[in-house]
Write a structure and sequence with these properties.
single chain; alpha+beta; Structural Genomics Hypothetical 15.5 Kd Protein In mrcA-pckA Intergenic Region, Chain A; Alpha-Beta Plaits; four-stranded antiparallel sheet; 22% helix
């Protein structure tokens, strides 16, 4: 009976080795052993009693951890950087980093706000790589006084990188006529590269400042810039229900 067995790539991802898709690549490359034998077949299932090795080291089944951090600008959403620039992991306690947590998706170097961290590769896959539409809300300071036409276009979808964006929700928070800028919120369900910046540029209002205020319903919850907190059990449950 295979009722208590899971696919090898899913187990690897749940232990924080990498995302599920990346784990599939690692298996295909022959870097994973099960009970002393190299396994390259992606359909392989394993049980809790099987001994799994990755790059010659026995897999440690870690406690799953989930955090949200208020990412500052000027930090890369990366585990390392060859040019020794500041990375988001510089802000995390060394003891927590031992649990192999990593960022869920990315925020640009010059974008601040909500960023999730976990060692649960399966959840990371569900939130970033699957076909699910995950809500992301941004607070955007744009150059110029936004027009009704631009708002409608953003909501309906605009062409960026040769592809139309999906429908978005847009709200105007305030208009600063003295300094000729607008503060708006944009909620999208896609995760394309620099999407919000490109959307605003497409309608003629370049972004001056960008902050993500919500990701999959998780907010900053009073966190100061650079601070982080563990997710509450009901928040984790909600993420898995998406």
């Amino acid at each position: 009976m295979d009722d208590n067995k899971e696919r090898l790539q899913k187990v690897l991802a749940s232990c924080g080795i990498a995302s599920r898709r990346k784990c599939e690549e690692l298996i295909s490359e022959g870097r994973v052993k099960v009970n002393g034998k190299i396994v390259t077949e992606l359909g392989t299932k394993v049980s809790k009693n099987d001994v799994i090795e990755f790059d010659g080291k026995e897999l440690e089944r870690l406690e799953k951890l989930y955090y949200v951090i208020n990412k500052p600008t000027g930090y890369l959403t990366s585990m390392s950087d060859p040019y020794n620039r500041r990375i988001i992991m510089d802000l995390i306690d060394p003891e927590i980093k031992k649990s192999r947590i990593f960022p869920v998706g990315r925020l640009d170097y010059d974008t601040s706000g909500v960023l999730l961290l976990t060692n649960d590769g399966e959840l990371s896959y569900r939130l970033t790589r699957s076909n699910k539409e995950i809500s992301k809300e941004y607070q955007v300071r744009i150059d110029g006084i936004i027009t009704q036409e631009a708002i409608v276009n953003l909501m309906k979808g605009v062409m960026i990188d040769g592809v139309m964006t999906k429908r978005a929700k847009v709200d105007v928070i305030s208009l600063d006529r003295k300094n000729q800028s607008s503060l708006i919120t944009i909620e999208i369900t896609e995760g394309r590269n620099r999407q919000v910046r490109k959307m605003c540029e497409a309608v003629g209002f370049p972004v001056k400042k960008l902050k993500r205020i919500s990701f999959a319903g998780i907010t900053l919850d009073g966190l100061s810039i650079g601070d982080y907190r563990p997710l509450k059990p009901h928040e984790v449950k909600k993420l898995y229900s998406l």
